[in-house]
Amino acid sequence: MTRLDTKFRRILDYFRAEMPVAETELRYGSPFQLLVAVILSAQCTDRRVNVVTPPLFERFPDPERLAAASFDELFDYVKSVSYPNSKTRHLLGMARMLLDEYGGQVPSDIDALMRLPGVGRKTANVIASVVYDRPVIAVDTHVFRVSHRLGLSQGKTPEAVERDLEARVPPQDRPTAHHWLILHGRYTCTARNPKCADCGLQLWCDHYLAEHVRV
Fold this sequence. Notes:
It is a single chain. The protein is mostly helical. The chain has helices spanning 3-18, 31-40, 46-59, 63-67, 71-78, 84-102, 110-114, 121-132, 141-150, 158-168, 174-187, 206-212. The protein has two domains: 3-22 and 137-212, Helix-hairpin-Helix base-excision DNA repair enzymes (C-terminal) (Endonuclease Iii, domain 2, Orthogonal Bundle); 31-132, Endonuclease III, domain 1, CATH 1.10.340.30. It is 61% helix and 0% strand. Helix 2 (31-40) packs antiparallel against helix 8 (121-132). The mean pLDDT is 96.
């Protein structure tokens, strides 16, 4: 077993012990609603999305009603999130494609998901792992940052980091590992002023050892 294999095993063991329950912080009531929330969450906080979605889902609880909305009506519900114009167009196009090509059902296949407007690889992986428990890891900014700081990947793109993580994270752990890394990045390994003193992964973190341990 290589040192990197050992690092992965120790870090995963730590998360299993410290975060036995790790799941998305987005609030939703169906696969369709999660898809809407994830599209809205691009470059926007989950907290803001969770403020926006309750009245949105009350008015448009399913693809049928969303597809029938006008641009102006939908925009009024999402105007407080980032990039509201493009997200309004994406949501309308997504709902209409679900009805036209997928019988109103959110597909489980990654490639099929990525055909939907507003759905890139990260969003597709989130839906596939959260809804369908597929063995994939969605790489957002938190996962990307934490993976680099810990030394789990040196990949230059989200896709490269995804490949590095999936090469060593067991398939059964991948859906949860996505949330472990996100939550660690959101609350401990923050972009600015990471809380290294409070982190239980110091001995396995390349960033901590480089910044705080002097040989």
